[in-house]
Specification:
It contains four helices and no strands. By secondary structure, the protein is mostly helical. It has one domain. Helix 3 packs antiparallel against helix 4. The longest helix has about 30 residues.
Amino acid sequence: MQILLMVVVALHVLPAVFWAGSTFVLARAGGAGAEGLAYPQLGSAAVTVIMGGVLWNLTHGQSFETPERILAAGAASALVALGLQAAIALPAVRRLSNANSADLGNLRNRIALTQRLAAGLLAITILCMAVARYV
C-alpha cells in the first residue's frame, strides 16, 4: 500500500506542479507562449485530476470532516480552472494560427484573462492542500 500511495502522490504532484507553474507563467506573460503549452498543460491537468481522485479514494475514503471539506473546495477550484482553460483558452489557442491581425489581439487577451483566472483558482487549490492537514 505504501508504494502504491507514493506512486499515486508522485503522479498527482508532478503534473500539478507543471500545470500550476505553466498557468502562472502564462498569466504573467499575458498568454505569450500558450501555443506551445496549451496541450501539455491540459494533459498534465487531466492526469492531476485523475490521480487526485485516486489519492482521495486511497487516503480519505468515506470520511468527510473538515480536512476533506477543505480539500474538496480546493478540488472544485482546480476543476473550475481546468474547465476555463479547456473551454476558453484552448479554443482561442487553436484559432491563433488562422487569425487575422484584428482578431489576434482579442484572442491573446482571452488567453491571458483565462490564464489569470485559472492561476487564481489554482493558488486557492494549493492553499487548500497546504492547510487541510492542519485543521
